[in-house]
Design a protein that fits this description.
With 174 residues, the protein is an alpha+beta fold. The chain has helices at 3-13, 27-31, 65-79, 100-111, 157-169, and strands spanning 48-56, 82-87, 91-98, 116-125, 136-140. The termini are far apart.
Length: 174
């Protein structure tokens, strides 16, 4: 069978007069595509990666960290955010990866949490490291380990993300 045979059968099925015009609307009956128009390549969805560090607010003890982890996990599951959150006994660090709008929601939630203070955004980029994972994880790292990201000579940009990766490797997150 040739192509025009399928066009004729589709037209007859639709109650239309048969045509051999390959740019006609009748192709839509067969496969849903308009073969008369150019097909544009699909762009991958936009992604955003944000790395930040906060300190626990004055007077707030480390006992709240479990609740911070729990709320983040629930929110990030709902928002399809991947990444990692670490706690070093004084600071909370987080790497959020996802759609730009959803990462904005997660960032707003953590920076408006009264239990956390002095948010410092280290990286906010469209690049998402391939090792950032397919899910959300949280855990503990060595005491004061996150200080390396907050000092005056702390790494910036991609170097900060690589420092984060090293911190993850030395943490209890697996």
């Amino acid at each position: 069978m040739n192509r025009s045979h399928f066009i004729d059968r589709a037209s007859a099925f639709a109650g239309e007069e048969a045509s051999n015009d390959s740019s006609s609307e009748q192709f839509k009956v067969l496969d849903g595509f308009d073969h008369g128009e150019r097909v544009q390549a699909r762009q991958p969805p936009a992604r955003r990666c944000t790395l930040l560090v906060t300190k626990l607010a004055p007077g707030v003890g480390a006992g709240v960290v479990s609740d911070i982890f729990k709320r983040c996990r629930e929110r990030h599951d709902r928002l399809a955010i991947t990444g990692t959150m670490l706690f070093d006994g004084e600071r909370v660090g987080a790497l959020f990866c996802g759609s730009p709008d959803q990462v904005s929601v997660a960032l707003a939630a953590i920076t408006s949490d009264p239990r956390q203070a002095k948010p410092l955004v280290l990286v906010d980029a469209s690049y998402v490291p391939p090792w950032a994972g397919q899910h959300w994880r949280a855990g503990w790292c060595e005491p004061d380990a996150l200080a390396a990201l907050t000092e005056a000579d702390a790494p910036q940009g991609p170097a900060a993300v690589e420092t984060w990766r090293a911190l993850m490797a030395s943490s209890d997150v697996r």
